[in-house]
From TrEMBL:
Coiled coil: none
Reactions the enzyme catalyzes: (6R)-L-erythro-5,6,7,8-tetrahydrobiopterin + L-phenylalanine + O2 = (4aS,6R)-4a-hydroxy-L-erythro-5,6,7,8-tetrahydrobiopterin + L-tyrosine
PANTHER family attached to this UniProt entry: AROMATIC AMINO ACID HYDROXYLASE (PTHR11473), PHENYLALANINE-4-HYDROXYLASE (PTHR11473:SF24)
Protein name: Phenylalanine-4-hydroxylase
A GO molecular function held by the record: phenylalanine 4-monooxygenase activity
Gene3D superfamilies: Aromatic amino acid hydroxylase
């Protein structure tokens, strides 16, 4: 099985953008023996480059979790090996998938402490950017924090919340997805020695790891649950706004209450453009907006 070819898409899901292709929902065995030397080299290159970029940029929790996992640049990790470590630490396990899953399938995995990991890795000419999650994003970006007990519980709670929101209405799902985006994917955390990254969409990207902390262009704003759930986001460029938590405990506490009344409230409020700063925001950095595109928030 060549890993350099595009995996087959077998389903289409109706969204507000029309039919969008999604991958097969099946859990697949990681075809480890069929990774090419190219694949392992791409892993090694990305791994080593991000290790350097993340020094002083990724949160202490992320770096500690990553060390405890013992992933190495030498070769693409085997899910089975990582699973032995993960199960012992927090009871999570990885399952191989072709790529993006329908929402309910994804939530069901998380609710059962299973994290779906895309088994294929990007090509060498896609080192800097890929528009969909691959093995590097999923393994390097998402999996380490599943070793952190508080974050591990947050991910499961999110999955359960997703199953619930799915049963309410599509708007509830839109609001919940924004929370995932601005925490799990693009979250920043405030440490005693400054802002750090914990979001996996950032830690798996060299340019955004630097941009999110060092550029004056984006807003960096304190975490506020309902504010985040109203805020649109970017899927094709750097984020215009990053939200900063004080701790994973804060994230857990803020998201523990029943969201049902929140969804009802949010249904009556307008969404907020990705780059807007509100009077009540706790602003760490008011972005200059340099390089922002006027349209394209989703
Ligand atoms: N408390 C949320 C609800 O009732 C569930 C949730 C937990 C959502 C953690 C996100 C993160 O829907
Ligand atoms: Fe992701």
């Amino acid at each position: 099985m060549a890993t350099q070819s595009t995996p087959q898409r077998v389903e289409h899901q109706l969204t507000d953008k029309g039919y969008v292709p999604v991958y097969t929902t099946a859990v697949v065995e990681q075809p480890w023996a069929s990774y090419s030397s190219q694949d392992h080299a791409v892993w090694a290159q990305l791994f080593e480059r991000q290790q350097q970029v993340l020094v002083g940029r990724a949160s202490d929790e992320f770096l500690a979790a990553q060390r405890a996992m013992h992933m190495s640049p030498d070769r693409i990790p085997k899910f089975d090996d990582l699973n032995r470590v993960l199960r012992a630490h927090t009871g999570w396990e990885l399952v191989g998938v072709e790529g993006l899953l329908p929402e309910l399938t994804f939530f069901d995995h998380l609710a059962n402490r299973r994290f779906p990991v895309t088994w294929w890795i990007r090509r060498a000419d896609q080192i800097d950017y890929l528009s969909e999650p691959d093995l590097f994003h999923d393994l390097f970006g998402h999996v380490p924090l599943l070793m952190n007990p508080v974050f591990a519980d947050y991910m499961q709670a999110y999955g359960r919340g997703g199953v619930k929101a799915h049963g309410i209405n599509p708007e509830a799902l839109v609001h919940l997805t924004r929370l995932y985006w601005y925490t799990v994917e693009f979250g920043l955390i405030r440490q005693a020695d400054g802002l750090r990254i914990y979001g996996s969409g950032i830690v798996s990207s060299k340019s955004e790891s630097i941009h999110c902390l060092e550029s004056n262009a984006p807003n960096r704003i304190g975490f506020d649950l309902e504010r985040i759930m109203r805020t649109r986001y970017r899927i094709d460029t750097f984020q215009k706004t990053y939200f900063v938590i004080d701790s994973f405990e804060q994230l857990m506490q803020a998201t523990t209450p029943d969201f049902t009344p929140i969804y009802e409230r949010l249904a009556r409020q307008d969404s907020i453009p990705a780059g807007e700063v509100l009077p009540d925001d706790r602003v760490f950095n008011r972005g200059t907006g340099e390089g922002w595109l006027a349209d394209g928030d989703v």
